[in-house]
UniProtKB/TrEMBL annotation, chains A, B:
Lineage, broadest ranks: Bacteria, Pseudomonadati, Bacteroidota, Sphingobacteriia, Sphingobacteriales
Keywords: Activator, Cytoplasm, DNA-binding, Manganese, Repressor, Transcription, Transcription regulation
Family, similarity comment: Belongs to the DtxR/MntR family.
Keyword Transcription belongs to the record: yes
The name this protein goes by in its record: Transcriptional regulator MntR
Length: 216, 216
DNA sequence: ATTTAAATTTAGACTTGTCTAAAATTTTTA
DNA sequence: TAAAAATTTTAGACAAGTCTAAATTTAAAT
C-alpha cells in the first residue's frame, strides 16, 4: 500500500504533530536523520496522495487519511514492542529497533490476531497507549516529574525519552513503570528532584525528571 | 546487512538449487516474476559480494557464504509460519505471504528467542524442516504418493506445491500432515491413486499424488 | 558444419529516494 | 523597514533495482 519511506515520514510527522500544530521541513529532517531537500520532495508526494496538507514554506500537517495511516503504524509498533517484551522476554531498552522494522509488516489481520493473542494490551512497555484497530486510544494524561510540587506523589507511567541509555538508567535505579514515588524535595540550585521510593531516597536531575512521566 | 532484493534472489537460488545443480538466469526470473536482464544485473552484484559463483552464460550457484544467508532466511520464514499457525491460529494456506515479509526482519536474536518461545519446532506447518541457528536441519526423506506401490502406507508429512489452492483442497479432503494413508489401487488409465484413509476411500489425481509427500 | 532458435547479456532508460549546491522565501534583527 | 540570517525549495546528480530492445553467446536442428 505505502512504501517504507512514506510510512516513516508519516510516522515522523505524526510524532512531531503531538507537540507542534504545524510541522516544519527541518524538524522532519532532524527526526529522520535526512536532509531538508529530501523532505521537501517527499512532502510533495504525500500531498499528491492527500496524506498531508502542505503548502510551500508553510509547514505540513497530516490529513485525516494520513493520520489514520500513521496511527496504524504506531499501533503496530507498540503491539510488537509489547510482544517482544512480554512474550520473548526482551528488556524495554532492547525493542525499539526491532519494532521499527516490524511495524511495516503490512497485514492488519496479523496485527489484530497478535493483539488478541496478547489479551488486548492498552500500553506498550514504555507506557505509551496502543491504539485499537479503529485508531482509538486513551490519550496520555501524564505529567513529567519536573512539574510536580513537593510532597506530591504518583505512579511512574511513561517516558518521554525512549533512548536505550535513558531506559537503562531508569532500570538500574528501579524507576520502572508501575512504581509509586513521591517528591520529597526540589533543590533550587539546579532543580534536582529528591524522590522518596518504597525503601530508599533517590536524587534525579532535572533532565531525568523532565523525561519521566507520572499519572497523578 | 543485505537488501530486500538480495535476500529474495538468494532465497530463490537456494530453492532452485534443491532440484538443479546449477541454476539458470531464466529459472530465477520465472521464480521471482522478473526479467532475465534484471537477474543478470543482480547476479553480478551477488558475485561481487562473493555470495554466488557466477560466470557469464554458465548459470549460478550459491557460495558457502550465500548458502548460509539463504538458509537463515528460510529459517526465519518457517519459524514465522509456525508462529502464525500455532500461536495466532492462521490456517496453513494463509501464512505464506505474511511470512514472506517477516523473513526479512533482521535480528537473529529475535528469531532465536521466537524459536525458544515456540519450543524449538523442527517442521513448519507444511512439513518443511526448520534449520537451527547454525543452519543445520534434518533433510526431508519424503516421497510423493505417486511413487508408492499398491498396498504401501505412510504418514502425510509434506507438500511440494505450497499454493493456497492446493492447500485448501487438501484441507477439505482431510489430507493433512500426520494422517496415515495407504495406496489401495492405482488406476492405470490416468494414474489416479485410490487412497484408503481411516474411515473412507478417496481418489486423488496423479497431479495431487505427485505434490503430496509421505514418510515411509 | 551451418543455420536457426533459445537463452543470456549489454545498453540505455525509468522510478524511488537520496544528496549537494544554488536559488528563493520567510523570519529575525538592527 | 531594509539587511542579515535561517529556512525551505529547486535543480541536477547519483545509487538501487527494474524494464525494453538490441546484441551476443550457447544450444539445437537440419
Amino acid at each position: 500500500m505505502y512504501t517504507l519511506a512514506e510510512e516513516n515520514y508519516l510516522k515522523a510527522i505524526y510524532k512531531l504533530s503531538l507537540t507542534d500544530d504545524s510541522v516544519s521541513t527541518n524538524q522532519i529532517a532532524a527526526e529522520l536523520c535526512t536532509k531538508a531537500s529530501s523532505v521537501t520532495d517527499m512532502l510533495r508526494k504525500l500531498a499528491d496522495k492527500a496524506l498531508v496538507n502542505y503548502a510551500r514554506y508553510q509547514g505540513v500537517s497530516l490529513t485525516k487519511a494520513g493520520n489514520k495511516v500513521a496511527l496504524n503504524i504506531v499501533r503496530k509498533h507498540r503491539l510488537w514492542e509489547y510482544f517482544l517484551v512480554e512474550k520473548l522476554n526482551f528488556k524495554w531498552d532492547e525493542v525499539h529497533d526491532m519494532a521499527e522494522e516490524m511495524e511495516h509488516i503490512s497485514s492488519n489481520e496479523l496485527i489484530n490476531r497478535l493483539e488478541e493473542f496478547m489479551g488486548y494490551p492498552t500500553r506498550d512497555p514504555h507506557g505509551d497507549p496502543i491504539p485499537d484497530s479503529h485508531g482509538n486510544f486513551r490519550a496520555h494524561d501524564l505529567k513529567p516529574i519536573s512539574t510536580m510540587p513537593v510532597n506530591a506523589g504518583g505512579i511512574i507511567s511513561g517516558v518521554r525519552d525512549h533512548s536505550a541509555a535513558f531506559l537503562q538508567y531508569l532500570e538500574k535505579q528501579n524507576l520502572v513503570i508501575g512504581r509509586y514515588i513521591t517528591v520529597k524535595e526540589i533543590i533550587t540550585y539546579d532543580n534536582t528532584v529528591v524522590l522518596q521510593m518504597e525503601n530508599k531516597e533517590l536524587q534525579i536531575s532535572h533532565e531525568v525528571a523532565n523525561n519521566l512521566l507520572i499519572a497523578l
